[in-house]
Give the backbone structure.
Amino acid sequence: EAGVVQSPRYKIIEKKQPVAFWCNPISGHNTLYWYLQNLGQGPELLIRYENEEAVDDSQLPKDRFSAERLKGVDSTLKIQPAELGDSAVYLCASSVQWNTEAFFGQGTRLTVV
Amino acid sequence: AQSVTQLGSHVSVSEGALVLLRCNYSSSVPPYLFWYVQYPNQGLQLLLKYTTGATLVKGINGFEAEFKKSETSFHLTKPSAHMSDAAEYFCAVSELANQGGKLIFGQGTELSVKP
């Protein structure tokens, strides 16, 4: 069974440029999460989807961040414009439902210069 | 709001020694508790979880954790450390559905294993 697939694995961009991350969850998983992991810290939830509905986006900085999960499968997280402080690892995870095991992708390491 | 505190950002043990990684949580209701491991440049992998029932939970790679409600703790242990156990370990608590149903992670504990 394929796991959660994220791309790209690494991304280096200049500040003020846009960037997008893609996530393909495990087939049949209704819940999808985007987490932000700063260096030396635990992941922090940015947004949670139940199917195609964003049910918790309270921690998503909506002035520059946006996300979508079309058809309740793949998801894209976008930052526009990127700032130096956005340098971090962006993790995608999925689970069958909200309180079952979450499976994590390998993450996208973003460096903003 | 729920929170998780991991005592010690870095723990070092000798190969074959006991591993003890500490985790305390705050919650006004019975939580779901998890331990995840993260190897360098990898995503998080679930080691074990507590939902209900038996308070001593066994996970993969010989790890186990005990839920102690009176101490609000969920410490992770392994009787004998192996070199391959060197990684970052995260304790997490899951909120109830009416509070969002998300994982709240501790700051992580880096485990080093000396030969």
